[in-house]
Amino acid sequence: MKKITFYTNPYSRGVSVRWMLEECGAEYDVVPVHFGKEMKSEKYLSVNPMGKVPALKVDGKVIVETAAILTFLADMYPEKNLIPPVNSLERGEFYRWMFFALHLEYAFMDKFFDVPSSKKKRRSIGYGDYDTALNTLTEFLKDKKYAIGNRFTVLDLYLTGLLRWAIFAAGVLPKEGMLADYMKLHGTREANIKGQELDQELAKSMGLD
């Protein structure tokens, strides 16, 4: 059995990794990391030079970037069927939309920070602009329960976490409507609820709640 160490803060993107760890039924140790000096300390920078959480250490090897961690875990626990099979067309579709979601996050960030757009910027940046990225996601998820195929995958998990942030933390999306319904549907999964409870306990132990 691989030794998994999870570096996180309960108010970070680590909530999605925690959810995924619970979906996988993984056994793991948690290392809480405070924002600020601790996250930028020499000790933590030796784990992630970017000074960001989450990070995952598996048998001594470090994996960072939320989407990478989630995809790695899905492959690490193939019996959970959280990612399409390698070499399948669905796997290619998964990669397309997982990588698109990274652009979508930056589009949401631009909206949140009120970053002005321009013709030159739309031409140069991968996601174009906020409206284009949002419309693309909306059309993709229209009339769908699951993003890929007919079952829950790690892509649904990642999109749900992203939409939850955009709706409740950033306030750049409405609390009602198709995207909110999609987010609420998958947010009721047992592993997510357990992950949230564990993060609430972690927040209290860190003096954050």
From TrEMBL:
InterPro entries, A to Z: Glutathione-S-Trfase_C-like, Glutathione-S-Trfase_C_sf, Glutathione_S-Trfase, Glutathione_S-Trfase_N, Thioredoxin-like_sf
MF annotations from Gene Ontology: transferase activity
Residue ranges occupied by any GST N-terminal domain in the UniProt entry: 1-81
Coiled-coil spans in chain: none
CDD domains on file: GST_C_8 (cd03207), GST_N_GTT1_like (cd03046)
Domain GST C-terminal: 87-209
Keywords assigned: Membrane, Transferase, Transmembrane, Transmembrane helix
Transmembrane segments: 152-173
Species annotation: Leptotrichia hofstadii
Keyword Transmembrane helix: yes
Full protein name: Glutathione S-transferase, N-terminal domain protein
Record-linked Pfam families: GST_N
